[in-house]
Amino acid sequence: MKTKFLAIMLCACGITATAQQPIYKQASASVEDRIEDLLDRMTLEEKVGQICCPLGWEMYTKVSSDSVTISELFKKQMSAAPLGSYWAVLRADPWTQKTLETGLNPELSAKALNALQKYAVENTRLGIPILFAEECPHGHMAIGTTVFPTSISQASTWNRDLIYQMGKVIGLEARSQGANIGYGPVLDISREPRWSRVEETFGEDPYLTGCLGTAFVQGMQGDDIKDGAHVYSTLKHLAAYGVPRGGHNGNPADIGMRALLNEYLPGFRQAVEEGKAATVMTSYNSIDGIPCTSNSFLIDSLLRKQWGFEGFVYSDLASIDGVAETHHVAVDLQDAAVQSVKAGTDMDLGAKSYSTLVKAVKDGKIEEEYIDRAVANVLRLKFQMGLFENPYVSPERARQVVNCDEHKQLARQVAKEGTVLLKNNGLLPLKKNLKKVAVIGPNADVMYNYLGDYTAPQEREKIVTLLDGIKNKLPKAKVEYVKGCAIRDTTQSNIQAAVEAARKSDVVILAVGGSSARDFKTKYIHTGAATVAKDSGILPDMECGEGFDRATLNLLGDQEKLIKAIAQTGKPLVIVYIAGRPLNMNLAENVSDALLMAWYPGEQGGNGIADVLFGDYNPSGRMPVSVPRNEGQIPVHYSQGVQRDYMDSPGTPLYSFGYGLSYTKFEYSDMKLSAGDGGDVIQYITCTVTNTGKYDGEEVVQLYVNDEVSSIVVPALQLKGFKKIFLKKGESKEVTFALTRKDLSFYNKDLIFTAESGKYNVMIGGASDNLPLKGSFVL
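Given the sequence above, the corresponding structure tokens read:
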């Protein structure tokens, strides 16, 4: 009886304790009830703090190689008003001045974010945890993480499942170090190769971008955001950022409303509706005179009300400030803040403008309900992730999982599937019994030229260059390396030495292209974009990456001189482009025996390219962008259809969207069309693909649609399906595509999203300019 009484008393005490605990701290309460309870308890200053996201890399102090503590600056910021988010605490690069010595390894990173989180939870009035946001476009931008190929290379894989797996790994590595949000993927449609950020995109096509971007999001976020292995994804950049006027980063996008809706936003819509992306970032540019960060149509009407977005919206770094200081449509930062938060931008990345909102509310310039709306959107993600219950991560786990062997192998897979074979006169695949190989060029053995922008410092031994990869394949051969020249600087050129090495070789592998490698001499503006500085000293290789827009697409420095000199030796010549944007390839196409585009192939890039060169992997990469013959053709994207010739140049690109060679041959036959079953599917299209060559290999089967007569002008050709299939030599497979009503829908002259009746032409093949199978149906 006494035991029973004690049990009743203990139970009653537990009920009382729960009842006394604030609702927002009760895990069993609904998310919306917790939000409402917490909002009611917050001061205006605390609310505004929750929608500010300052820069993060000064928030810790590295004490020793195994110890880290929070900085006094962090304590000062949190005491003023506890902040809702921090960006890039773990970022390391020349802009942040964090090096391998002063930055943090994965284990220390986890300790640092735990310490910051612990202070927020235990030393602030309400104990609200922080959302730590990190850059994650091709790996977590932190020391020691797995560096995957950049997005344009990812897109060249045309492999949804592979990109999903990559997103999953990136999410795991970021979360294990304490991050909650990963910035990426970038869903900007890139049709301006002079623009500095082509490398961050999935290319020129909305369908391919939407499919791969959605897979990336789903991999990063997983099915259960509370599982400690995933992060929230941030879609970048809303909207039309990839077609800036003149190719200048951040310039206005000169497009109409229907082009915006039909060509530049479908990827975002798919990633929101299907991928359930939790956060979105606005862009620096304006559209039709309205800055995107204060554009209520984009953020409120489209994103939230039409697409059903339930997360929160970040500004880009200082893009709210830019509403006043760049676009000049606000009188000051407070006016810019008021416009932006009313439009639906919830979080100020940079935290300069939203710090003025307390006074704006008190002065009657904005109603507090707008602040409450933004704060609720931020708190919702914190509750959904379970941060109030489990705010910390395991440093030991971070040490074990970040850049583990499995992740390195995945990076290698993405690198080789993202390498595109553009030309091959039979030289490739190379034999492994070669005795003498010359490896030449500015991109043959410069590690950071493989990694792209948004990459942290990495240890040399973890990066595999092309020279490393070739030596791995040919341990008994004599492999001679001569740089020949730099990317830009001409004072380093030694072309004669390269020629001599070529003459003594059985085959020459020449790596040229570009670089987004930042160095500590480069200057940066407040947004982190690089500036193009004039310097009388040695020029850095960097000619791409945020802020490095170009007027031409020619190879810089003495690279073309190097190509010509090597070609004149008459030796078998393989040219590999390692670059962040489509560059002029006319000379290389003319003089090479084989030509490959490897983009920025990441930390395992050298192994991935070597796998292709020596036939350990049959190339399956396909171009996600068209390669112009010269800048005068721009824009040259495939969906414009066949363009007539210029007086002085062909109208066609040098290499078209979807193009890429294999070591084997594929034939297409037996196209069949059949009506859908009365549901969402409008039409089934089936064909047979046969491997008629001598090698096993993968083909990317591509389906394109043409709307023969429509109520508005629509693209002449549109990708509406693709499947990557593996075929053994001599094998045939039947491939079926299902065209849905959504696939055929567009925003008509009344801005209604609909599929119109009429005749549709369908084409299937291996590239946008190689479509042997044709048919049609009537809707």
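The chain has 23 helices and 27 strands. Try to locate this feature in the token string yourself.
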